[in-house]
Each structure stands twice: as structure tokens, then as C-alpha cells.
From TrEMBL:
This is WD repeat-containing protein 37. The keyword Transit peptide does not apply. Its main location: cytoplasm. It comes from Arctia plantaginis. Residues 225-237 have a biased composition (Acidic residues). Keywords: Cytoplasm, Nucleus, Repeat, WD repeat. It is found in: Cytoplasm; Nucleus. The keyword Manganese does not apply.
Amino acid sequence: MKSSKRRLQALTEGSDGIPNYLKMEDSETSIPPVFRSRLHELFSQIEKEFDLLYTENLNLQEKVDILSEKLERESYVGDKQNLDYIEFDVTGKNSKVKLTQSNSQKVKASHKLRVQTSKIVSSFKAPTYNCQLVREFTGHKDGIWDVSSARPGQALIGTASADHTACVWSVEWGKCLLQYTGHSGSVNSIRFHPSRDIALTSSGDNTAHVWQAAVNWDLPRGQSSEEELEGGGEESLGEGGDRPEVLRTPLTELLGHQGVVVAADWLTGGDHVITASWDRTANLYDVETGDCLQVLTGHDHELTHASAHHASRLVVTASRDTTFRLWDFREPIHSVSVFQGHTESVTSAVFTREDKVVSGSDDRSVKVWDVRNMRSALATIRSDSSVNRVGVSGNGLIAIPHDNRQVRIFDLQGQRLARLPRSSRQGHRRMVTSVAWADDISSNINFFSCGFDRRILGWSIQPSKEN
């Protein structure tokens, strides 16, 4: 799956569902018209077969999810009842643990029982957060690579899509207020400036753009994207409602990469930008002038992600070479540390508020690291599917999007707290590519996910009342 994601990104640039070789003019091909017509017919039949298989697979997966959740609930209730019969009798140095069950067995090896009991408790601990789908945002014409929340005080999110556009959405209205169309390739990431109304996007056209992201809040509300969906399925931006403002010209175009720019982020203060590219380099730019200040080399394969620390001049880059690198720009001469923490491509690496780094990989694991001592991971989270762009909340909740449409929530100690619904009615229908927390938004939506089903989902993730 890890290699297919890269192929998918190349294929979806400008995709309209028709193979390129079937869109050639008659003068560009030697295939007789009768054979071309037959090819069209055969490919249409193949597409229909794949649609049927895909629909059947979704229905089967939904049934499996329902059964899995039922088994989890039953296992938790059953083992919780068993645990009610455990009594601890501590008598001193050579303490024994008395286990009262139906067979009245006594276990003298107290350390073994403590290990077994710990495993039971951790395995059947109930989810501590409730996840509820609140709003759906639709309008992109192709898969969505990235979602990001605006700075505190602004109820906005931004999205980057393979349809060559980036959009700024109102969280409250569920409407696209601004559409940026300045890129000529897939838009792979989006980040808002920490204090100004500007945005940063990276693209398959080998550039990153800085553009004006001020929105017109006086636009008529019209229908929300959720209402449009209920009224007639997915619609393009502006159809059935008010068209968003369209912006085509960037404030600054950041040039210099020789390959796809997959990610870009603002350094603290917002005066500099870091970009990551398939040309195996990361570039540091001056936003005001657009000049490339430094080219960061060292990765052996294509970069997959770049992220900056919220308060210090630290940057982390991830790569398909199975490593991620920590770059320190706090001194005039920057330093770099290389970390071999995964066995396959590292798909993302981000900082937490507690000066930790969370890395995700195609090896189906997520690891938590301490920036001050990164010799070994503090926690390792393993899953059954490749990990995409992870997100960490201000209070330390890790959201992990997967290729298999799952989104799981963990804490920084690696304890699973919740799993988002994955049914066809509530969850994503294709792989989930990115997630974003919105801790400061006043509405009840505090989490967003996006994927290649062309949808952005807004969720309310709150602590359970039982906690």
C-alpha cells in the first residue's frame, strides 16, 4: 500500500476518471476507431465490475466492524465481572495475592498474577472518549491530501486536494468561503500563518505558494455542505449555493525544488518556511523575499513530510528512507540528528506541546519520542494498517489516520482512548489521509479528518461522562 499511495498521487493529478490514452485525438493514435470504441466498451464493463466489488467490500467491512465492536463490548463486560472477584491481601514482604473465583484457586506467585491482571485491565479498558460526527464538508472534485485548522479565534479549516485546489471553509456554516487555484498540480498540504491571514500550500508542480487567506464573512450563508449532501449527493463548490471567492495569484511563489513538494510548514514567528520534496531535500525560505536560505540534504530517498515546532526553531523531516531528522536552527550553524526508528517509510512526524515527537510509518506503527533523549521511543503504538499524517492535540491526544479508513485516538503513553466510527453512514469510504485538531474553536467540532472519498468530516471528541 505504501508504494500505491505514491502512484495514486501521480495518477490523480488532473484525473477525470478517463485513462489518458483514451482521450487522445484521432491524429495522435494509430488505433482504428472501431477498436477504440471497443476499448471504451470493455473498460466501461471493467469499471462496473470494480464498482460492484467495491460496494460489496464496503458492506462486508461494515458488518465486520459491527461484529468487532460487539465482541469488544462483550469482552469488556465479561472480564470486568471477573475482575470484581479479585481480592488483594498484602501481608508484608512476602505478600501473597488471594484470588477468589468459582474454583477458589490460590496463586502464590504474586508477581505473575500482577502481570496477568495488568494485561487484563489494559486489554479490556473501556474507551474514555466519545466520538460523534457533527458535520460533513463536500465539494472537492478529487481526493483530499491534507486538512488544517486556522489560528486560535478563527473558526476556519483549510484543505489541500488532488483536484489542484486548496479551500478555506467555515466550520460553523460548513461552506467553502475561499478557493485557491494558483497551483498547476495536486495540492499536497496546507498550513495557516500563526498570526496573519495568509496560507501556505505545497504542490505537485514543484512549488510552494504563500497566498492571501482573508475570507469574506459577509457572504450569504446559503446552504451548508451538509444540507447540499442530504439534498442531492455530492456537489461541486458553488453548485446549488453561493460560489466561493476564487483566488488565482500567490503573494509569494517559493521555487527551487526539482520534484514534487509534499509538505510545507511555518517556523515559529511566521517569517520562514520549511518545505519537503521528492527531490530528497528540504528547503528553508524567507517568506518576505521568497529566497531559499538553505538546502537541507542527507535523506537517501524522497521526503514525505516536514513539520515545525510551535515555539522553537526546530524542524522535523520524514522520508521514505525509514528515518526522520531533527533540524535545530536555534544557532547560526544548524545541527541535525538522524533517527532510525522505523522499518519502512516514515509518513509523518510532528511535535507535541510537551517537546516530544510523534512519528508514523508504513510499518504500521506510531512512536512517541522525547526531543531531549531520542535514543529509544517512549511509547510504541502498533496497528494493522499503514499510518498516514498523524495529528496531536494541545492536551496530548494522538489521532492516527490509516489506509484502512480507521482513525484511532491514543494518549502519549500509547493507551488507546477511542476509535472513530467507520460505517458507511458515519466514517470515511476510502483511506483517511490526514487529521487536524481544533482545540480553540468555540463550536462543538474539535476534530477534522479527510480522505480520498473527497470528504472532510467534522467530529466532536469529548471525554466520556464515566471518567
